Amino acid sequence: MTGFGARFAAIVALGLSGAGALGANARAQDIPVIDAATERELRELRELYRHLIAAENAHDIAEVRRMVWRSPTALFVAKTKTPAEGGWAGFWGADTVVSHINDLFQSGVFVMAPDFEREKVVLLSPTVAETYAPLKISVAYAGQTGTPKPFLMIVDWVRVGSSWKMATDIAVPIPPASAAPAAPSESTP
C-alpha cells in the first residue's frame, strides 16, 4: 500500500492503539452508565446503519440520498476512478458524496457485508454518533474484480432535528497480513 492509503492506515492504527491503551487504563468509575434513553439512541443508530447497508446493497440511490447529511462538509472517503486522481480521496459535500456512491453502483458489482457481531456504536455527544464495523466489500469500480476485500467502515452521524444523518463514511482497506511491516529486531537501537 502506498500514498494516501498507507498514511491513512497508519493514522487509523495509531488512533486505535491509543484508544486501546486508554481503555486499559480506564477506571471503573470512568465508564459512563448507559441509561434507557441512551440505549434507545444506540438501538436506533444500529437499525439505521443496517438500513444504510441494505439501501446501498440494493443500489437504492434515492434512499441513500435521503440518509446523507445535506451539508458541504458531508464526507465519503473511497477509491477514485483513476490512479491519476490519487487512488483514494475524500469526496466532500452531499451531492458529491451521493454522486460518487451512485458511480460505485453503476459499476455493476457493489455489495457490502458487515460483521454485525463486531459492530460498535457510540454517542460522542447528544447530536453526534459513530458506527464502526469490519466488513467485506465487493466492488467492480475502477477496474476492480468484484472480489470481496476486508475493510473497516467508520460512519459518523449527526442529529438533524429528530433524525440521524450520515455525515461521514470512511472505508479503510485492511492490508493483507503479509503486507504488515516486520517487527524490528532486538539488535536494532
Essential attributes:
189 residues; alpha+beta; seven-stranded mixed beta sheet; disordered N terminus
Fold topology:
Layout: H1 3-25, H2 36-57, H3 61-67, E1 75-79, E2 88-92, H4 94-106, E3 110-114, E4 120-125, E5 128-139, E6 149-160, E7 163-173
Parallel strand pairs: 1-7
Antiparallel strand pairs: 1-2, 3-5, 4-5, 5-6, 6-7
Describe the model.
With 189 residues, this protein is an alpha+beta fold. The chain has a single domain (35-175), classed as Nuclear Transport Factor 2, Chain: A (Roll), CATH 3.10.450. 34% of the residues lie in helices and 30% in strands. The chain has four helices and seven strands. Strands 1, 2, 3, 4, 5, 6 and 7 form a seven-stranded mixed sheet that branches. The relative contact order is 0.15. The model is unreliable at 1-26 (pLDDT under 50).
Largest sheet: 7 strands, mixed
For the record, the CATH class is Alpha Beta
Number of strands: 7
| CATH architecture level-2 label | Roll
Average pLDDT level: 80
Q: Helix/strand-derived class?
A: alpha+beta
Secondary-structure element order, N to C: HHHEEHEEEEE
Low-confidence stretches: 1-26
Beta-strand percent range: 25-35%
Fraction of helical residues: 25-40%
Radius of gyration from CA coordinates: 18 Å
The CATH topology label is Nuclear Transport Factor 2, Chain: A
> How many individual domains?
1
**Spatial gap, N to C terminus:** 26 Å
Number of helices: 4
Shape: globular
Oligomeric state of the chains in view: single chain
